[in-house]
Amino acid sequence: MSTNAIAATGIGDGPASTAAGTTVLETDALTKHYMVSTGAFRPKATVRALESVSLTLQAGRTLAVVGESGCGKSTLARQIAMLEAPTAGRLRIGGIDMTEADATTRSALRRSVQMVFQNPFASLNPRKKVGHALEEPLAINTKLGRAEREERGRAMLDRVGLSPEHYRRYPHMFSGGQRQRIAIARALMLEPRLVIADEPVSALDVSIQAQVLNLLMDLQEATGVAYVFISHNLAVVELIADDVVVMYLGRIMERAPKAALFAAPRHPYTRALLASTPRVDAVRGEAALARAARSALSGELPSPLSPPSGCVFRTRCPFAVPRCAEVVPALEPQGEAHAAACIRLAEIG
C-alpha cells in the first residue's frame, strides 16, 4: 500500500479523526505458536500461546482481556502491537490487513498503535530526562522541530496531571504513579487510535491505581482513543471496561459486554474468576468473598506445550464430562453481543 493510500484511510491522523463506532481493531482466528527446544537431540516442541482469537474494538471503547497468568494475554498484546508476526489468522488495524501489509505500510501504521507497560519503573530510561522520552516518538515519526516537540511534550505533561516544570527531571525523581502518567503521556504523543495497556496499574498502590484509571478514562473521553486493557484484576476491569474477553490457555472462553458478564457469567471459568474476586457485600457493608463450591478452581494451569484435548479448561472444570475431551467448543451466542465456549451451557444454566 502506498503512502497516499495509507493517508486516505485516516490511520495515523489521531483519534480525533475517528468517528465513534468506527472499528479500530479486528482479529480473525489470530494464532501464535512458538517453537522451543526440549533438549539436545530432541525435536523442538510447539508452545500454543494463542489459538484462533477473534475480536473487534470500536473507537472510544475499552476492551478488557482477562485471565490467569499464562493464558495468552500478553501474547495477544504483542500481536496487536505488531511486535511479532502471527502464525495464522488476520489482524486488521483501521480496516487494513496487517498480516499482508508490506514493511513500509506496517511501519507507517505502527504510530496508530501504542503501548503502556506494566512496570513504570522499568519502562522509562533512567539516563534520559522526561522531556526526551516524550519527544522521542515525535522525533522518529514526524518532521517537527525541537521547539514544537517540546511544546507538545509540555502540553501533554499538563494533560496527564503533571507540571510542565517536570520536563527536565529524571524518572527516579518521580513516584510510581507519576511515572505511569509519564508513560501514558508518551503513548499519547502520536495521537494513536489504539492504546494497549498491559497491566498498567498492577505495580501501583491501590490508591494510586484509582487515579491512573480515572486519568485513562478522562483521556479516552477527551480524545476518542480505544483501549485494549489487559488485566487479571476483575475489580479494575469492572471499573474501566466496556467489553470483556475471558481467555484461558490461549483461547477465548467468554466474550460479552461488561454489564452482562458481571451480572450473568455463562462459562464455568468466568464464574470461577468472579467467585474468587473480593467484592463488597451491599447488605452488610463489608468485604466478602463469594466462593461458590461448584465454581471453585482446582489444580494448576496446564502447559501450553501439551494442552488438554477438546476443551482446554476441562481438567479444572467442575462440570466436565467425557465428551469435553473430544470436542473443541466454539463460541456460541448467549444473547446480544454475548458468547461463550462450552458444550454444556444449556445444562449448567
Commentary on this structure:
With 349 residues, the chain is α/β, with parallel strands linked by helices. The strands form three sheets. It has an eight-stranded mixed beta sheet, with helices on both faces. It has a four-stranded antiparallel beta sheet with strand order 2-1-4-5, with helices on one face. The longest helix is centred in the middle third of the chain and has 18 residues. The radius of gyration is 21 Å and the shape is globular. The N terminus is likely disordered.
Describe how the helices and strands are arranged:
Layout: H1 3-9, E1 23-36, E2 45-58, E3 62-66, H2 73-80, E4 88-93, E5 96-97, H3 103-109, E6 113-116, H4 130-141, H5 146-159, H6 176-188, E7 194-198, H7 206-223, E8 226-231, H8 234-240, E9 243-248, E10 251-257, H9 258-263, H10 268-275, E11 279-281, E12 286-288, E13 332-333, E14 339-340, H11 345-348
Parallel strand pairs: 3-8, 3-9, 6-7, 7-8
Antiparallel strand pairs: 1-2, 1-4, 4-5, 9-10, 10-14, 11-12, 13-14
Helix pairs in contact: 4-5, 4-6, 5-6, 6-7
